[in-house]
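discrete fold record:
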Amino acid sequence: MAHAGTLSIEHLRKQYEVKGEPLPVLEDITLSIAPGEFVSIVGASGCGKSTLLRLVVGLEEDYKGEILLDGKRVAGTSLDRGIVFQEHRLFPWLTVEQNIRMALLNANLTESEKRRTVREHIGLVGLAGFETAFPHQLSGGMSQRVAIARALVTRPEILLLDEPFGALDALTRAYLQQELHRIWQAEGITMILVTHDVEEAIYLGDRVV
């Protein structure tokens, strides 16, 4: 089981430059998330939810305030923080197994350890038997499960989910919500979900922000 991270966001401010003018996106955000907690962040389109996740995962560094993981300032991307986007972003020329294994490229594991952990995570997301399938042979929901496995295979302390089910039909979405809840209980890691769906936020989250 992965170690669950403690995330502290303190007086976070973020702005972009648009036509030479500052555009504030996040203003004085303070949020503390306990180890193993599942927090849902709800808001209208354009309110800065995805920007917040991008800052936490380390894809952007130009901000004011503090983002701390286990007391250490977040600087750049790291295997400690996994992310799943709305689009699965799988490599179309790689199989399910190969797509998940790509996340372990820089991991300090032996070949046999990599094979074993990839196999475990394919089982975790319920895709045993599809190891050699290519993305074009999978449904949207199956592809998103591959993306979740790829994000979890590095054993991150925190998993960030940016509207991961937004592009799916209602039945597939409901099924994957149940699956995500099961995976969270099995792995015990900290999860942060961004969504505009209030029902999804309430169903999945310990706490809604």
In short: The first strand starts at residue 7 and ends at 18. The chain is about 30% helix and 25% strand. The domain at 7-208 is CATH 3.40.50.300 (Rossmann fold). The helical segments are 49-57, 96-101, 111-124, 140-152, 170-187, 198-204.
